[in-house]
Amino acid sequence: MSTSSGARRSRTSYQCGECGHGTARWAGRCPQCQAWGSLTESSAPPPALRRISAVPPARPAQRLRDIDARSVATRPSGVGELDRVLGGGLVPGGVILLAGEPGVGKSTLLLAVAQSWAAGGHGRALIVTGEETAEQVRLRAGRLGAVHEDLYLAAETELSSVLAHVDEVRPGLLIVDSVQTIADASVDGATGGVSQVRAVAAALTAAAKQRSIACVLVGHVTKDGSVAGPRVLEHLVDVVLYFEGDRHSTLRLVRGVKNRFGPADEIGCFCMTEGGIESMADPSGLFLSEQRFDVPGTCATVMVQGRRALPVEIQTLVGPPGGGAHRTVSGLDPARVSMVLAVLQRWAGLSVSGCDVLAATVGGARTTEPTADLALAMAVWSSVRDIPLPRTMVVLGELGLSGDVRPVPGVARRLIEAARLGFDHAIVPRGGHGDAPAGMRVSEAADLTEALRALGEGALGSTDVVVNLRGGRPG
């Protein structure tokens, strides 16, 4: 009796639906990928170890230098900002996963990409839609002017039918909108489930690489902004892009987080208009406010995304004491905002305890760079003291917990872009900035005290007190 029960226990195992990790006991959280509620019972016995005999390979190994890679060279999609993020364009056989919130404009962007691809003479483009009817897509394409004789459309939700369309049309570009709506009849599970998404993505990836087709898969996102479905989906594809933007704003950003063919930290800027979506080749100044007078609580910095330097204005508002000490952050890292407030209280004698603090970036910009620390500190200081900072000043630097200003990468490139937009004064960490751009005055600061003193007597005012880090508390 005990032997029988022991045999049943040995045959029962649990497998994670996210990463495939197997375990003998059930747990609420996968010990491998840390996903919650992903372990399901599997009665299949573990495969026994066996010896695999070698068989002749389909293609012999080649010397790396003898392989001709010209057939998979990047081809421009016709959408400049997307090509910038991709590292030059679409790669035949490459698979791209484009994720974004509903209504942000993913289908509109890809419709423009398909039309530009077909019009550019790169071959046929096939759009497979599982969320709309063919008539609905045709109506939108007519409104956007995205109609071409080499642009094909199929409304399908069955994987075998999608592959049949691919064999019939023989496209150079395949767009699947979306991967969560396609189902494989040979795989158990509901459409959009973990097993279905994994099987569909694997089949489409294999088909794209076998036929040298540039493939774009549209993916849904969860509430926390990550790609819905199994994590292995991001490992299967070559490129992972996030399409971001507030539906109440015309600004859209394509952010690369994984790219096997180019830089993985580039962003592309787009503008959503009535006629479709347009690339913004020069987005400098997009994240700066247009007000013409100095306002307390604002300070400009320069963030770097890939090879692009973008000036960003940080705005803060500190309420009077007794407001409840709420912290509201938009576009910045909340953890770094809390750290900067603690550094200001300890080393600049600037107490915000019991005060509401609101911090945000202009234009929907998102930055988690430590480079914005010093600019955030100056903006909070300006709001509390009610002293406006010069609008032609830009501030760069990472703040340490001891109040020191640490160096940041790419200072020279950031200053050149700031000078091009009319900034004439910069506060930067000591050393490493090179020659100052023409017409710009550069002040170096080793700590928070020197950064505040670099504002000058006129900005500080006669009654303002600046703490000396080497002298302890402010006098």
List the helices and strands and how they pair.
Elements: H1 2-11, E1 13-16, E2 22-23, E3 39-42, H2 80-86, E4 95-100, H3 106-119, E5 125-129, H4 134-144, E6 151-155, H5 159-169, E7 173-177, H6 194-211, E8 214-219, H7 232-236, E9 239-244, E10 251-259, E11 267-273, E12 276-279, E13 298-305, E14 308-321, E15 327-330, H8 334-347, E16 355-361, H9 373-385, E17 393-395, E18 398-399, E19 405-406, H10 411-420, E20 425-429, E21 441-445, H11 448-453, H12 457-460
Parallel strand pairs: 4-8, 4-9, 5-6, 5-7, 7-8, 15-16, 17-20, 20-21
Antiparallel strand pairs: 1-2, 1-3, 9-10, 10-11, 11-12, 13-14, 14-16, 18-19
Helix pairs in contact: 8-9
Short description:
This protein is α/β, with parallel strands linked by helices. It has helices at 2-11, 80-86, 106-119, 134-144, 159-169, 194-211, 232-236, 334-347, 373-385, 411-420, 448-453, 457-460, and strands at 13-16, 22-23, 39-42, 95-100, 125-129, 151-155, 173-177, 214-219, 239-244, 251-259, 267-273, 276-279, 298-305, 308-321, 327-330, 355-361, 393-395, 398-399, 405-406, 425-429, 441-445.
What can you see in these coordinates?
Helix 6 (194-211) links the parallel strand 7 (173-177) and strand 8 (214-219). The strands form five sheets. The chain has a nine-stranded mixed β-sheet, sandwiched between helices. A four-stranded mixed β-sheet has the order 13-14-16-15. The chain has a three-stranded antiparallel β-sheet with strand order 2-1-3. The protein has helices at 2-11, 80-86, 106-119, 134-144, 159-169, 194-211, 232-236, 334-347, 373-385, 411-420, 448-453, 457-460, and strands at residues 13-16, 22-23, 39-42, 95-100, 125-129, 151-155, 173-177, 214-219, 239-244, 251-259, 267-273, 276-279, 298-305, 308-321, 327-330, 355-361, 393-395, 398-399, 405-406, 425-429, 441-445. The protein is of the alpha/beta class and 475 residues long.
